[in-house]
Amino acid sequence: MRDIKICGIDSVKTAVHAGNSGATMVGMVMGVPESPRNLEHESARKMALQIPHPVKIVLVCRTLSNKILEHASTICHDYLQFHDVRSIHLLDTREHACRSRCIIGIDYYVDEPKLAMIGNFIENQDILLLDGSQGSGKQLVPSQLHETFDMLEHALGLRASDVMVAGGFDVENIETFLDSWNPRGVDASSGLEREPGVKDLNLIEQFCKIIRNHDQPGERHT
Length: 222
Prior knowledge:
Blueprint: E1 3-6, H1 12-21, E2 25-30, E3 38-39, H2 41-50, E4 56-60, H3 66-72, E5 79-82, E6 101-106, H4 112-121, E7 127-131, H5 142-156, E8 164-166, H6 174-180, E9 185-188, E10 193-195, E11 198-199, H7 201-214
Parallel strand pairs: 1-2, 1-9, 2-3, 2-4, 4-5, 5-6, 6-7, 7-8, 8-9
Antiparallel strand pairs: 10-11
Helix pairs in contact: 1-7
């Protein structure tokens, strides 16, 4: 089953609704105070305790730091997501307080040295996320997507079906995207909000329904 991640969750109610709608992951943003989706450590900790299985909890930050790892060690979660590959050295041995699986976010412009760092670190249960938006809500560019997937296959042996994708997804464009691409998962945030930082429950439900209907046996994938 394809993963559906709803990122920037603002409440337990939203997380539960996302899971009931078909999402497999919910993301809680931490350590990004300028973001309207940012959660303080104690709020994230309390929320995580109330989100029922099987939905997976993802702690999302831009850059790893000792403070982020310290906070993560006190919060129940399944994945730690980060986007600054240069901070990956903090997890080199994985002998740290946070021993969860990781989601590693990259953009179109990831270079060979960064891919080499990822290749030396990534393990079987980790996930690579190609994020064309980087939190801006900007939509993916098909030509850049082709180039980046070619680079990932060459450098890491990863195909589109091995990678999660984010970048301005909403109920209007997700089906068209899935008609052309078959990623292992999709990640959406601002496209499912009624105002910055506040998720729209109806949009979450529609988004998940569109994906699940598309993925039914007999549907075309390319």
